[in-house]
C-alpha cells in the first residue's frame, strides 16, 4: 500500500534536464505515494506539532511550491484536503534527495563484484561471468546468492533498477520474488542466449529459449500461447500468423499478476549470444505485448567487429538490433541499451529516432577497458539516458559511486579523446542518475495495464515519491552555511551507501 504523509527536511532534486532545485527546510505532502506539493517550514503553524495529531491546518495555498519553470500548479483542492491523522516525518536539517535508478546491472554477477577484472569484455565473459552464472541452475544456490543481492540493493541508494538475471527461468522467478519483498521497483529479465556461449551456459536453440521465455512470462502473469512464439518447423515465423500482427492477442494482463512492483523485461544478452531466429522471436514478443527490452550495444571494439561478422548484412550493431525488431520506438515498446561507447553518428540518429534509452556505465567501461561513452554528446542531442552500475563489470552497486565516476571519466574524455567535448557537470550526472533513468519506468506498458505510470526521480508535483534521507555526520567540515547544492556535491564525492539514513520507494518506507 502506498502511503500518505508529510515529510520535512532540506530537499534537493532535478526539476528538469541537468538542473537542481533547492527547497531548504521545507515540508512535502505525499498522498498515495505521489508528491502533491510542498511549502517552506517557516509557514508551519507554531502549534503544528500539537495539531498534527488532530486536524492539520495548512498555510495559504500560494506558498505551496509549483513546478518552477515547468509552470505546473498543484491541485491544492485535491492535494490538501483530508489530512487528518497523516504521518509526519520530521527530518529537519537532513538532506533529502530522490532515489537513484540503476538502469543496468546483472544480479548473478554480484558474487564476484570487485574481482577478476583484468580482462577485456569477451575474455571477461568467459573467465568471470559465465562460470558464475552457470551456478544459478541450482535453485538453492540462486536463492542464497540472490538473497544477498536483494538485501544489499534494498540497503543501497537505488530505489529502481533494471536487472539481468541468468538464462534460468526458475532462478529468475526466485530473484523476482526476493526483489518484490524489498519494496523497490524493478524490471528483471530472464536472459536469452543460444549461440557462442560455453556448453554449460547456453540454450539449445531459439525454440527452447523462446519456449522458456513464454513459460517465464506466463509465470509473471502474462497469458501467452507458446505456439504463437516458438519457431515453427519452417523456422522463424510464428505458427499462428495472426498472433504476430494482432496486438490484442498477445497483449498481456489477462493473467493474474503475482508481482506488484517487479516487472519482466525481455533480455537478449547481446547480438553475439543470440541467433537471428531467437532475436526475431523476442522482437515479436515485444511488439505484441509491449514488454520492454534490454541488451548491450557497442561496448567493446572487438565485440563491435564480431557483430559485423555475425550479421554481415547489417550497417552497424544498432542496425543489427533494428533488423531483429528489438529497438521499439515512441509508439511501440521501449528498449534500453547498455554502454553505447562506440556508436557512429548514424547509430546515434537511429537510437534517437527510436527513443531508445542508453544506460551509461562508467565504472564498467573503465574496469574492462572498454572506453568512455560520449555522454554529453548524447545529452546535447536530447537522447534518453540514464546511468547503470553494470555489476559485476562495474565494481560497486552504489549509484553514488557510479554517478561521480560518470563525471570523472567525462573529464578524461575531454583531455584524451576529444578536446571539444564538454565534461559532464555533477548536476547533470545527478539528473541522469535520478530523473533521467527513472523515466524508463513510465511509458504505458503492460506493467501499468496500458496506462502511463507517474514519473519518478524528482519531487515535482505528480511524481512518485522515491527518496533517500542522507546522513552527513561523517562529512565533517568547519565551513558554515553550505548551500544544499554544495552539500549534495560533497555527498556524491565523499559518501557511500552506508550514509543513507532512510529510504522511500514508490511512497513506501523501505527503512
Ligand atoms: N555483454 C554481454 N554480456 C555482458 C555482461 O554480462 N556484462 C557486460 N558488461 N557486457 C556484456
Ligand atoms: Fe551488462
Low-confidence stretches: 54-82, 233-253
Strand order within the widest beta sheet? 3-2-1-4-15-16-17
CATH class of the largest domain: Alpha Beta
The CATH architecture category of the largest domain equals: Alpha-Beta Barrel
Beta-strand proportion: 15-25%
Note the total helix count.
18
Q: How confident is the prediction overall: mean pLDDT?
A: 88
Number of strands: 17
Heteromolecules bound:
guanine, fe (iii) ion
Q: CATH topology of the largest domain, what is it called?
A: TIM Barrel
Number of domain units:
2
Query: Percent of residues in helical segments?
Result: 25-40%
**Main β-sheet, in a few words?**
7 strands, mixed
CATH superfamily of the largest domain: Metal-dependent hydrolases
Q: Alpha-carbon distance between the termini?
A: 15 Å
Task: Give the class from helix and strand content and strand pairing.
Answer: alpha/beta
How much is the radius of gyration in Å?
23 Å
The 3D shape can be described as globular
Describe this structure in words.
With 511 residues, this protein is of the alpha/beta class. The chain has 2 domains: 5-98 and 457-509, Urease, subunit C, domain 1 (Roll); 100-445, Metal-dependent hydrolases (TIM Barrel, Alpha-Beta Barrel). It contains 18 helices and 17 strands. The strands form 4 sheets. It has a 7-stranded mixed beta sheet. A hairpin with a 2-residue loop joins strand 16 and strand 17 (508-509). Helix 4 runs parallel beside helix 5 and helix 16 (399-417) packs across helix 17. The longest helix has 19 residues, at 399-417. It is globular. It starts with a strand and ends with a strand. Bound molecules: guanine and fe (iii) ion. Guanine is lined by residues 106, 121, 125, 129, 269-270, 296, 299, 364, 390, 393.
Amino acid at each position: 500500500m502506498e502511503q500518505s504523509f508529510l515529510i520535512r527536511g532540506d530537499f534537493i532534486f532535478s526539476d528538469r534536464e541537468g538542473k537542481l532545485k533547492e527547497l531548504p527546510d521545507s515540508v512535502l505532502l505525499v498522498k498515495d505515494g505521489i508528491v502533491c506539493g510542498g511549502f517552506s517550514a517557516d509557514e508551519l503553524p507554531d502549534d503544528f506539532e500539537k495539531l498534527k495529531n488532530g486536524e492539520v491546518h495548512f498555510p495559504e495555498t500560494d506558498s505551496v511550491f509549483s513546478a518552477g519553470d515547468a509552470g505546473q500548479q498543484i491541485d491544492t483542492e485535491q492535494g490538501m484536503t483530508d489530512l487528518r491523522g497523516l504521518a509526519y516525518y520530521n527530518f529537519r536539517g537532513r538532506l533529502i534527495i530522490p532515489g537513484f535508478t540503476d538502469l543496468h546491472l546483472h544480479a548473478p554477477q554480484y558474487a564476484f563484484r570487485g574481482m577478476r577484472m583484468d580482462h577485456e569484455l569477451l575474455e571477461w565473459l568467459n573467465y568471470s561471468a559465465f562460470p558464475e552464472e552457470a551456478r544459478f541452475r541450482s535453485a538453492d544456490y540462486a536463492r542464497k546468492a540472490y538473497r544477498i543481492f536483494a538485501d544489499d540493493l534494498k540497503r543501497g541508494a537505488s530505489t529502481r533498477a533494471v536487472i539481468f538475471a541468468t538464462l534460468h527461468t526458475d532462478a529468475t522467478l526466485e530473484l523476482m520474488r526476493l526483489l518484490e519483498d524489498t519494496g523497490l521497483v524493478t524490471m528483471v529479465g530472464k536472459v536469452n542466449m543460444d549461440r557462442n556461449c560455453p556448453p554449460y551456459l547456453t540454450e539449445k536453440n531459439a525454440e527452447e529459449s523462446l519456449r522458456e521465455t513464454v513459460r517465464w512470462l506466463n509465470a509473471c502473469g502474462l497469458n501467452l500461447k507458446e505456439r504463437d512464439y516458438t519457431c515453427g518447423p519452417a523456422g522463424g515465423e510464428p505458427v499462428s500468423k495472426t498472433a504476430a500482427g494482432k496486438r490484442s492477442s498477445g497483449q498481456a494482463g489477462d493473467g493474474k499478476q503475482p508481482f506488484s512492483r517487479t516487472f519482466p523485461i525481455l533480455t537478449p544478452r547481446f547480438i553475439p549470444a543470440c541467433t537471428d531466429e531467437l532475436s526475431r522471436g523476442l522482437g515479436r514478443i515485444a511488439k505484441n505485448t509491449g514488454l520492454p527490452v534490454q541488451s548491450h550495444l557497442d561496448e567493446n571494439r572487438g565485440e563491435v567487429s564480431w557483430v559485423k561478422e555475425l550479421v554481415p548484412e547489417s550497417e552497424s550493431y544498432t542496425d543489427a538490433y533494428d533488423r531483429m525488431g528489438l529497438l521499439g520506438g515512441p509508439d511501440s515498446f521501449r528498449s534500453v541499451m547498455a554502454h553505447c561507447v562506440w556508436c557512429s553518428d548514424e547509430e546515434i540518429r537511429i537510437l534517437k529516432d527510436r527513443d531508445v534509452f542508453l544506460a551509461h556505465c562508467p565504472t564498467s567501461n573503465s574496469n574492462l577497458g572498454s572506453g568512455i561513452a560520449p555522454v554529453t554528446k548524447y545529452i546535447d542531442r536530447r537522447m534518453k539516458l540514464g546511468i547503470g552500475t553494470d555489476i559485476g563489470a562495474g565494481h560497486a552497486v552504489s549509484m553514488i559511486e557510479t554517478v561521480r565516476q560518470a563525471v570523472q571519466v567525462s573529464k578524461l574524455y575531454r583531455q584524451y579523446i576529444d578536446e571539444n567535448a564538454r565534461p559532464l557537470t555533477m548536476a547533470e550526472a545527478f539528473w541522469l542518475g535520478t530523473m533521467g533513468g527513472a523515466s524508463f519506468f513510465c511509458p504505458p506498458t503492460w506493467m501499468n495495464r496500458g496506462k502511463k505510470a507517474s514519473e519518478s526521480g524528482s519531487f515535482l508535483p505528480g511524481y512518485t515519491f522515491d527518496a533517500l534521507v542522507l546522513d552527513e555526520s561523517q562529512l565533517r567540515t568547519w565551513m558554515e552555511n553550505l548551500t544544499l547544492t554544495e552539500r549534495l556535491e560533497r555527498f556524491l564525492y565523499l559518501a557511500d551507501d552506508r550514509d543513507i539514513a532512510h529510504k522511500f520507494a514508490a511512497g513506501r518506507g523501505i527503512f
